[in-house]
Amino acid sequence: MSDAYAPLADVLERLGELTGRPGRLPEVLDVGDLSYRTGIPAEVVCRLLSGGSVPEAGLAERVRQRLDFVRETRRRPDGKRYSLGELARIAGTSRQWLSEWRKSGMPSLEHADRLRRFFGLPAGFFTADEPEALHEALQPVLQGLEAQADPLLRLRESGLVRLAMRAPQMNPRQLATLADLAEMIIKSEDADVPTGRG
Q1: Which has the closest alpha carbon to 124: 62, 191, 79, 46?
Q2: Could you tell me how far CA 9 lies from the centroid of its own chain?
Q3: What is d(CA 69, CA 84) in angstroms, rounded to the nearest whole number?
Q4: How far apart, in whole angstroms, are the C-alpha atoms of residue 33 and residue 19?
Q5: Which of 6, 20, 77, 164 is the most exposed place for a label (fewest CB within 10 A)?
Q6: Tens digit of pLDDT for each residue in 74-118?
Q7: Which string of DSSP letters, residue by residue, matches 67-130?
Q8: Rg for the chain, CA atoms, rounded
Q9: Residue 61 and residue 105 in contact, taking contact as beta carbons nearer than 8 Å
Q10: Which of 8, 9, 100 is nearest to 63 (CA)?
């Protein structure tokens, strides 16, 4: 297995431990969602989740495939597919340039980034190789499963356990004040989180 697969292999091993399904992750993870978020075809996601490898595609081929994937999977608000002209406008370029990009697979960074931001795609969406893209997409899945397996993990990592260790030295009023402060912070953060897609 090449170095490109090593970080993914580590995540897959941990996910296998957390789910109790090592080597059988396509049975328990949302393959369709992972495909949608990475631009990797579902059958390739399944192969990678099972610990397999895929033929290495050149950058131009990968960029072209991801652009076509976006065009096939992202829809306008009316449910219709975006035309090449619409994608060109989103990218801030001409339809001719976009057609040339599809042929050559080599966009300008600025135009690719405009498309990426418009569709809410992760950084490196058009250029990341398959193991790298899947590794990044699995990070929130891994964090969620780890939080379920150990709800106190994030508190320990953030140093709040040290604060809890001081609780025996605090009086009831101090403890209540601390709890109120924590609730205020959580509520203010929740109020700052935007809802819906921008």
Answers
A1: 62
A2: 17
A3: 13
A4: 18
A5: 77
A6: 999 999 999 889 999 999 988 888 888 777 767 788 888 999 999
A7: HHHHHHH-B-TTSPBPPHHHHHHHHTS-HHHHHHHHHH----HHHHHHHHHHTTPPTTTTT--H
A8: 22
A9: yes
A10: 100
